[in-house]
């Protein structure tokens, strides 16, 4: 059996097991990871590289930074301030999505979500609303906000690099032509119809996010220092390019400072790390690597696009590219999906004599629609444990958002980025 066939079979196994959830998500991920090694598709180093991926380091660091905000009671204080202004659950959801969406446009969407997840859990604790109803809108808004600027998500820059080699480029806020209407439509959706689709679970496994504690004995300096270090960590993430320090390193420095200053103990810091998230994300990154290395991802892409014939309608091709990227990105990272699809899309555009910007915009926007699975983007994975989510929660709440994004994109893309300008 060829490596690409084995990879596709393990992808199928993963999809089925993630949906049925007969075994824990993290265990399914590890079966796939180890299966790829045992069958010889990947070597050990490549298969387990996900566990030292920069996003995993970022997860660990931000779990500790968030944990400190909870251990000191500062998250509850912040929650109290926000809930004074947002009087209903719907208003809270709108406020969270607006703030997260706009921040993700100028920051890393993963970094934004990582910083604000503990704050939103604090808001849920203070307001009495279920955190499971607030955290999915948060991570969806982070994904949508990534399409507001050139630096919102790594996939945006991959497409830009490919265009620059051809003497073309996207403007800094050009992605927002499609991205902003999707964000607005998404916020309206979850404030109205989608509100009923949000899961209503009790608090999940939350480690340090324990909302029943009495914080009256915690010194004020610890509370304020936890917030100051969080803000400084966020600022370091905003100015990542200026200071030359990666997101994960900024997060690591913040986490170390909190432990060294005694704001959070080593024991509580370790307790705050959600291992379910680490195994789920680290394990499934091996599948993304296998899809790329064996060419299995390219096989899927070429089969779908090849089925359209030699001279497909530009509108149909845009829709197919968009939907294919949507499908792939829910099981691979959006960065990996964009990296895989960009060269394929460019060759299609050149073959048809079409504007490559039109095809690549469809590719990037479609590649950001990772709403329907807990492994589609790092932020989705981060809230699995704390939100008490199941795989189908993402499908029920996220699939309609993919439909909305598709409809909005198919209206705007042909007008703003015509195939044959």
UniProtKB/TrEMBL annotation:
Pfam families: CitMHS. It is found in: Membrane. Keywords: Membrane, Repeat, Transmembrane, Transmembrane helix, Transport. Residues 15-364 form the Citrate transporter-like domain. It is a multi-pass membrane protein. The chain crosses the membrane at residues 9-42, 48-70, 91-124, 136-159, 171-193, 223-240, 247-265, 315-346, 358-377, 397-420. It comes from the Bacteria. This is SLC13 family permease. It comes from Faecalicatena faecalis.
């Amino acid at each position: 059996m060829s490596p690409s066939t084995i990879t596709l079979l393990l992808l199928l196994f993963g999809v089925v097991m993630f949906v049925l959830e007969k075994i824990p998500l993290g265990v399914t991920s590890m079966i796939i990871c180890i299966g790829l090694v045992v069958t010889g598709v990947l070597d050990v180093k490549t298969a387990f590289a996900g566990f030292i991926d920069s996003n995993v380091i970022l997860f660990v660091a931000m779990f500790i930074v968030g944990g400190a905000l909870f251990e000191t009671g500062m998250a509850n204080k912040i929650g109290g301030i926000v809930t004074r202004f947002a009087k209903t659950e719907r208003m809270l959801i709108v406020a969270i999505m607006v703030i997260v969406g706009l921040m993700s446009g100028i920051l890393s969407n993963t970094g934004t979500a990582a910083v604000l997840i503990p704050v939103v859990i604090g808001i849920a604790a203070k307001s009495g609303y279920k955190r499971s109803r607030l955290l999915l809108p948060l991570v969806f808004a982070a994904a949508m906000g990534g399409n507001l600027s050139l630096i919102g998500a790594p996939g945006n820059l991959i497409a830009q690099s490919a265009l620059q080699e051809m003497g073309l480029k996207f403007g800094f806020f050009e992605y927002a032509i499609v991205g902003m209407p999707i964000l607005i439509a998404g916020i309206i959706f979850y404030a109205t119809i989608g509100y009923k689709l949000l899961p209503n679970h009790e608090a999940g496994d939350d480690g340090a996010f324990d909302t029943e504690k009495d914080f009256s004995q915690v010194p004020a300096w610890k509370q304020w220092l936890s917030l100051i270090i969080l803000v400084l960590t966020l600022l370091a993430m905003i100015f990542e390019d200026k200071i030359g320090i990666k997101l994960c390193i900024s997060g690591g420095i913040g986490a170390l400072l909190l432990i060294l200053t005694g704001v959070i103990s080593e024991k509580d810091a370790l307790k705050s790390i959600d291992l379910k998230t680490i195994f789920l994300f680290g394990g499934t990154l091996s599948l993304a690597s296998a899809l790329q290395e064996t060419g299995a991802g390219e096989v899927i892409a070429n089969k779908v696009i090849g089925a359209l014939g030699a001279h497909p309608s530009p509108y149909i091709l845009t829709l197919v590219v968009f939907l294919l990227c949507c499908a792939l990105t829910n099981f691979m990272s959006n960065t990996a999906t964009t990296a895989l699809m960009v060269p394929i899309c460019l060759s299609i555009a050149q073959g048809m004599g079409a504007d490559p910007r039109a095809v690549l915009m469809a590719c990037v926007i479609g590649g950001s629609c990772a709403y329907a699975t807990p492994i589609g983007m790092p932020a989705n994975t981060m809230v699995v444990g704390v939100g008490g989510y199941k795989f189908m929660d993402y499908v029920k709440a996220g699939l309609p958002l993919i439909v909305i994004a598709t409809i909005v994109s198919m209206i705007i893309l042909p007008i703003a980025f015509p195939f044959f300008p």
